[in-house]
Fold this sequence. Notes:
The longest helix has 21 residues, at 72-92. The chain is α/β, with parallel strands linked by helices. It has one domain (8-305): Ureohydrolase domain (Arginase, Chain A), CATH 3.40.800. It contains 10 helices and 8 strands. It has helices at residues 28-34, 37-43, 72-92, 106-120, 150-154, 186-195, 202-208, 211-223, 255-268, 288-300; strands spanning 8-14, 47-53, 95-100, 124-129, 176-181, 198-201, 227-233, 271-277. Helix 9 (255-268) links the parallel strand 7 and strand 8. An 8-stranded parallel beta sheet has the order 2-1-3-8-7-4-5-6, sandwiched between helices. Helix 3 (72-92) packs parallel to helix 4, helix 8 runs parallel beside helix 9 (255-268) and helix 9 packs parallel to helix 10. It starts with 7 loop residues before the first strand and ends in a 13-residue tail after the last helix.
Amino acid sequence: MEQTPSKTCTLIGAPCQVGTKRRGTVMGPDAFRTAGLADTLTHLGCTVDDIGNLTPGSRAFAAHPNAAITDLDDVANWIDAISQATRQAARTSDMPIIMGGDHSIAAGSVPALARHAQDLGQPFFVLWLDAHPDLHRLHTTESGNLHGTPVAYMTGLDGFDGHFPPLPCAVKPDHICMLGLRSVDPAERALLGTMGIDTHDMRAIDEHGVKAPLTKFLDRVAQANGRLHVSFDVDFLDPDIACAVGTTVPGGATFREAHLIMELLHDSGLVTSLDLVELNPFLDIQGKTARLMVDLTASLMGRTVLDRPNRSR
Protein backbone atom coordinates (compact mmCIF):
# COMPACT_ATOMS: atom_id res chain seq x y z
CA MET A 1 0.00 0.00 0.00
CA GLU A 2 1.26 3.45 -0.89
CA GLN A 3 1.74 5.60 2.23
CA THR A 4 2.14 9.30 2.76
CA PRO A 5 5.42 10.53 4.22
CA SER A 6 5.31 10.11 7.99
CA LYS A 7 3.33 12.86 9.71
CA THR A 8 2.67 13.54 13.35
CA CYS A 9 -1.04 14.05 13.98
CA THR A 10 -2.54 15.41 17.19
CA LEU A 11 -6.18 14.53 17.81
CA ILE A 12 -8.01 17.10 19.93
CA GLY A 13 -11.46 16.22 21.23
CA ALA A 14 -13.76 19.25 21.43
CA PRO A 15 -17.12 17.83 22.62
CA CYS A 16 -18.97 21.13 22.39
CA GLN A 17 -22.72 21.09 21.79
CA VAL A 18 -23.70 24.49 23.18
CA GLY A 19 -23.36 26.27 19.82
CA THR A 20 -26.66 24.70 18.75
CA LYS A 21 -29.90 23.77 20.45
CA ARG A 22 -29.82 20.30 18.84
CA ARG A 23 -27.98 18.16 21.36
CA GLY A 24 -25.73 15.23 20.47
CA THR A 25 -22.46 16.63 19.07
CA VAL A 26 -20.98 16.19 22.55
CA MET A 27 -20.55 12.54 21.50
CA GLY A 28 -18.78 13.44 18.25
CA PRO A 29 -15.12 13.06 19.31
CA ASP A 30 -15.68 9.64 20.84
CA ALA A 31 -17.62 8.53 17.75
CA PHE A 32 -14.60 9.42 15.60
CA ARG A 33 -12.46 7.36 17.95
CA THR A 34 -14.88 4.43 17.85
CA ALA A 35 -14.94 4.61 14.04
CA GLY A 36 -11.17 4.06 14.07
CA LEU A 37 -9.73 7.47 13.18
CA ALA A 38 -6.48 6.96 15.09
CA ASP A 39 -5.94 3.43 13.75
CA THR A 40 -6.68 4.59 10.21
CA LEU A 41 -4.13 7.40 10.44
CA THR A 42 -1.56 5.04 11.95
CA HIS A 43 -2.12 2.56 9.11
CA LEU A 44 -1.37 5.40 6.68
CA GLY A 45 2.01 5.97 8.30
CA CYS A 46 1.14 8.75 10.73
CA THR A 47 2.29 9.00 14.31
CA VAL A 48 -0.86 9.80 16.28
CA ASP A 49 -1.17 11.51 19.65
CA ASP A 50 -4.72 11.68 20.99
CA ILE A 51 -4.72 14.24 23.81
CA GLY A 52 -8.29 13.36 24.83
CA ASN A 53 -11.28 15.65 25.25
CA LEU A 54 -10.89 19.26 26.31
CA THR A 55 -12.76 20.80 29.22
CA PRO A 56 -13.77 24.48 28.99
CA GLY A 57 -13.22 27.01 31.74
CA SER A 58 -15.89 29.05 33.50
CA ARG A 59 -14.99 32.66 32.79
CA ALA A 60 -17.82 35.17 32.70
CA PHE A 61 -18.14 37.14 29.45
CA ALA A 62 -20.28 40.17 28.72
CA ALA A 63 -23.96 39.50 28.05
CA HIS A 64 -25.39 40.46 24.66
CA PRO A 65 -28.65 42.33 24.03
CA ASN A 66 -29.79 39.83 21.39
CA ALA A 67 -32.28 37.83 23.46
CA ALA A 68 -32.18 34.91 21.02
CA ILE A 69 -28.61 34.02 22.00
CA THR A 70 -28.16 31.18 24.47
CA ASP A 71 -25.09 29.67 26.15
CA LEU A 72 -22.86 32.62 25.26
CA ASP A 73 -20.48 32.13 28.19
CA ASP A 74 -20.24 28.40 27.51
CA VAL A 75 -19.39 28.91 23.82
CA ALA A 76 -16.84 31.62 24.66
CA ASN A 77 -15.11 29.34 27.16
CA TRP A 78 -15.01 26.52 24.62
CA ILE A 79 -13.43 28.91 22.09
CA ASP A 80 -10.77 29.84 24.62
CA ALA A 81 -9.95 26.22 25.54
CA ILE A 82 -9.84 25.07 21.90
CA SER A 83 -7.68 28.03 20.88
CA GLN A 84 -5.04 27.25 23.50
CA ALA A 85 -4.94 23.52 22.76
CA THR A 86 -4.85 24.02 19.00
CA ARG A 87 -2.03 26.51 19.11
CA GLN A 88 0.01 24.17 21.29
CA ALA A 89 -0.68 21.24 18.95
CA ALA A 90 0.32 23.32 15.92
CA ARG A 91 3.70 23.95 17.55
CA THR A 92 4.38 20.26 18.22
CA SER A 93 2.78 18.29 15.36
CA ASP A 94 2.41 18.40 11.59
CA MET A 95 -1.37 18.00 11.55
CA PRO A 96 -3.68 19.06 14.38
CA ILE A 97 -7.10 17.44 13.88
CA ILE A 98 -9.84 19.02 15.96
CA MET A 99 -12.74 16.62 16.45
CA GLY A 100 -16.03 18.38 17.22
CA GLY A 101 -18.41 19.23 18.51
CA ASP A 102 -20.53 21.79 16.69
CA HIS A 103 -19.02 24.29 14.26
CA SER A 104 -18.59 26.99 16.89
CA ILE A 105 -15.33 25.18 17.71
CA ALA A 106 -13.83 26.71 14.55
CA ALA A 107 -13.91 30.08 16.30
CA GLY A 108 -11.25 28.58 18.56
CA SER A 109 -9.22 26.45 16.17
CA VAL A 110 -8.99 28.66 13.09
CA PRO A 111 -7.75 31.94 14.65
CA ALA A 112 -5.21 29.96 16.71
CA LEU A 113 -3.88 28.33 13.55
CA ALA A 114 -3.84 31.70 11.79
CA ARG A 115 -1.71 33.04 14.63
CA HIS A 116 0.65 30.07 14.33
CA ALA A 117 1.02 30.75 10.59
CA GLN A 118 1.72 34.40 11.37
CA ASP A 119 4.43 33.35 13.82
CA LEU A 120 6.00 31.25 11.05
CA GLY A 121 5.79 34.14 8.59
CA GLN A 122 3.43 32.29 6.23
CA PRO A 123 0.05 33.31 4.82
CA PHE A 124 -2.93 31.36 6.14
CA PHE A 125 -5.85 30.04 4.09
CA VAL A 126 -9.10 28.25 4.96
CA LEU A 127 -11.19 25.81 2.92
CA TRP A 128 -14.71 25.87 4.39
CA LEU A 129 -16.71 22.76 3.46
CA ASP A 130 -20.21 23.49 4.72
CA ALA A 131 -23.80 23.98 3.62
CA HIS A 132 -23.74 27.28 5.55
CA PRO A 133 -21.32 30.22 5.54
CA ASP A 134 -21.58 30.65 9.35
CA LEU A 135 -21.20 34.39 8.86
CA HIS A 136 -23.68 35.74 11.37
CA ARG A 137 -22.63 38.40 13.84
CA LEU A 138 -24.08 38.32 17.32
CA HIS A 139 -26.68 40.95 16.53
CA THR A 140 -27.85 39.29 13.27
CA THR A 141 -28.45 35.72 14.42
CA GLU A 142 -32.18 35.07 14.74
CA SER A 143 -31.82 31.49 15.94
CA GLY A 144 -29.28 32.41 18.61
CA ASN A 145 -27.23 29.33 17.62
CA LEU A 146 -23.61 30.42 17.87
CA HIS A 147 -22.34 27.70 15.55
CA GLY A 148 -23.50 30.14 12.88
CA THR A 149 -20.95 32.82 13.88
CA PRO A 150 -17.34 31.51 13.60
CA VAL A 151 -16.50 32.98 10.19
CA ALA A 152 -17.73 36.43 11.23
CA TYR A 153 -15.57 36.21 14.36
CA MET A 154 -12.45 34.81 12.69
CA THR A 155 -12.47 37.50 9.99
CA GLY A 156 -12.55 40.24 12.60
CA LEU A 157 -16.06 41.58 12.02
CA ASP A 158 -17.41 43.91 14.68
CA GLY A 159 -19.62 43.04 17.63
CA PHE A 160 -17.68 40.24 19.35
CA ASP A 161 -15.51 42.32 21.73
CA GLY A 162 -16.13 41.31 25.32
CA HIS A 163 -18.53 38.53 24.31
CA PHE A 164 -15.95 36.17 22.78
CA PRO A 165 -12.24 35.91 23.74
CA PRO A 166 -9.89 38.44 22.10
CA LEU A 167 -9.14 37.38 18.52
CA PRO A 168 -5.58 35.94 18.32
CA CYS A 169 -5.26 36.65 14.59
CA ALA A 170 -7.84 37.60 11.96
CA VAL A 171 -8.20 35.55 8.79
CA LYS A 172 -8.26 37.55 5.56
CA PRO A 173 -11.66 37.06 3.90
CA ASP A 174 -10.10 36.64 0.47
CA HIS A 175 -8.04 33.76 1.90
CA ILE A 176 -11.23 31.76 2.54
CA CYS A 177 -12.83 29.46 -0.02
CA MET A 178 -16.30 28.11 0.68
CA LEU A 179 -17.49 25.04 -1.21
CA GLY A 180 -20.96 23.52 -1.08
CA LEU A 181 -23.10 26.43 0.15
CA ARG A 182 -26.83 25.88 -0.12
CA SER A 183 -28.37 27.53 2.96
CA VAL A 184 -27.53 31.23 3.33
CA ASP A 185 -29.50 33.72 5.42
CA PRO A 186 -30.12 37.28 4.09
CA ALA A 187 -27.68 38.92 6.55
CA GLU A 188 -24.97 36.46 5.52
CA ARG A 189 -25.71 36.94 1.82
CA ALA A 190 -25.22 40.68 2.16
CA LEU A 191 -21.80 40.19 3.74
CA LEU A 192 -20.70 37.57 1.22
CA GLY A 193 -21.37 40.11 -1.51
CA THR A 194 -18.89 42.60 -0.04
CA MET A 195 -16.17 40.69 1.84
CA GLY A 196 -14.33 38.99 -1.00
CA ILE A 197 -14.74 35.41 0.27
CA ASP A 198 -14.38 32.92 -2.60
CA THR A 199 -17.78 31.21 -2.61
CA HIS A 200 -19.06 28.26 -4.64
CA ASP A 201 -22.59 27.10 -3.97
CA MET A 202 -24.00 23.74 -5.02
CA ARG A 203 -25.36 25.14 -8.27
CA ALA A 204 -21.84 26.16 -9.26
CA ILE A 205 -20.63 22.67 -8.36
CA ASP A 206 -23.48 21.14 -10.37
CA GLU A 207 -22.44 23.20 -13.38
CA HIS A 208 -18.65 23.06 -13.11
CA GLY A 209 -17.78 20.23 -10.71
CA VAL A 210 -15.58 20.47 -7.64
CA LYS A 211 -12.18 20.21 -9.32
CA ALA A 212 -12.00 23.55 -11.11
CA PRO A 213 -12.75 25.88 -8.17
CA LEU A 214 -10.73 23.82 -5.72
CA THR A 215 -7.69 23.62 -8.01
CA LYS A 216 -7.80 27.38 -8.59
CA PHE A 217 -7.85 28.00 -4.85
CA LEU A 218 -5.07 25.49 -4.16
CA ASP A 219 -2.91 27.18 -6.82
CA ARG A 220 -3.31 30.45 -4.93
CA VAL A 221 -2.27 28.82 -1.66
CA ALA A 222 0.76 27.19 -3.29
CA GLN A 223 1.88 30.38 -5.01
CA ALA A 224 1.74 32.21 -1.68
CA ASN A 225 3.60 29.41 0.15
CA GLY A 226 0.61 29.35 2.46
CA ARG A 227 -0.66 27.05 5.16
CA LEU A 228 -4.12 25.56 4.55
CA HIS A 229 -6.72 24.64 7.13
CA VAL A 230 -9.76 22.55 6.17
CA SER A 231 -12.94 22.99 8.22
CA PHE A 232 -15.23 20.09 7.32
CA ASP A 233 -18.86 20.17 8.45
CA VAL A 234 -20.84 16.93 8.09
CA ASP A 235 -23.68 18.90 6.48
CA PHE A 236 -21.42 19.62 3.50
CA LEU A 237 -22.35 16.07 2.49
CA ASP A 238 -25.72 15.05 1.11
CA PRO A 239 -28.00 13.74 3.89
CA ASP A 240 -28.53 10.53 1.91
CA ILE A 241 -24.94 9.54 2.69
CA ALA A 242 -24.45 11.45 5.97
CA CYS A 243 -27.54 11.62 8.15
CA ALA A 244 -25.82 12.24 11.50
CA VAL A 245 -26.06 16.02 11.57
CA GLY A 246 -28.63 18.32 13.10
CA THR A 247 -28.65 20.79 10.19
CA THR A 248 -29.37 18.57 7.19
CA VAL A 249 -29.83 20.40 3.89
CA PRO A 250 -30.74 18.37 0.77
CA GLY A 251 -28.51 18.48 -2.26
CA GLY A 252 -25.05 18.22 -0.70
CA ALA A 253 -21.84 16.72 -1.97
CA THR A 254 -21.94 13.14 -3.17
CA PHE A 255 -19.68 10.33 -1.97
CA ARG A 256 -17.33 10.68 -4.93
CA GLU A 257 -17.34 14.49 -4.96
CA ALA A 258 -16.28 14.49 -1.32
CA HIS A 259 -13.57 11.89 -1.85
CA LEU A 260 -12.26 13.74 -4.91
CA ILE A 261 -11.91 16.91 -2.85
CA MET A 262 -9.97 15.01 -0.20
CA GLU A 263 -7.78 13.32 -2.81
CA LEU A 264 -6.99 16.64 -4.50
CA LEU A 265 -6.15 18.15 -1.14
CA HIS A 266 -3.75 15.30 -0.43
CA ASP A 267 -2.14 15.65 -3.86
CA SER A 268 -1.55 19.35 -3.19
CA GLY A 269 0.47 18.69 -0.05
CA LEU A 270 -0.81 21.98 1.38
CA VAL A 271 -3.14 20.95 4.22
CA THR A 272 -1.66 21.56 7.67
CA SER A 273 -4.73 21.19 9.93
CA LEU A 274 -8.30 19.92 9.95
CA ASP A 275 -11.63 20.42 11.74
CA LEU A 276 -14.18 17.59 11.72
CA VAL A 277 -17.43 19.07 13.01
CA GLU A 278 -21.17 18.64 13.56
CA LEU A 279 -21.13 14.84 13.78
CA ASN A 280 -24.14 13.94 15.92
CA PRO A 281 -23.96 10.20 16.70
CA PHE A 282 -27.44 10.30 18.22
CA LEU A 283 -28.76 10.76 14.66
CA ASP A 284 -26.46 8.22 12.99
CA ILE A 285 -27.35 4.78 11.68
CA GLN A 286 -24.92 2.13 12.96
CA GLY A 287 -22.03 4.60 12.78
CA LYS A 288 -22.40 5.09 9.01
CA THR A 289 -21.66 8.82 9.02
CA ALA A 290 -18.77 8.53 11.47
CA ARG A 291 -17.14 5.83 9.31
CA LEU A 292 -17.62 7.95 6.19
CA MET A 293 -15.92 10.95 7.82
CA VAL A 294 -13.01 8.72 8.86
CA ASP A 295 -12.77 7.37 5.29
CA LEU A 296 -12.75 10.91 3.92
CA THR A 297 -10.01 11.86 6.36
CA ALA A 298 -8.07 8.83 5.12
CA SER A 299 -8.35 10.12 1.55
CA LEU A 300 -7.02 13.48 2.72
CA MET A 301 -4.09 11.70 4.33
CA GLY A 302 -3.20 9.62 1.30
CA ARG A 303 -5.44 6.58 0.96
CA THR A 304 -6.13 5.98 -2.72
CA VAL A 305 -9.09 4.29 -4.41
CA LEU A 306 -7.04 1.13 -4.89
CA ASP A 307 -6.16 1.09 -1.19
CA ARG A 308 -9.77 1.18 0.01
CA PRO A 309 -10.67 -1.86 2.15
CA ASN A 310 -13.52 -4.07 1.00
CA ARG A 311 -15.72 -4.48 4.07
CA SER A 312 -17.74 -7.30 2.49
CA ARG A 313 -14.75 -9.68 2.55
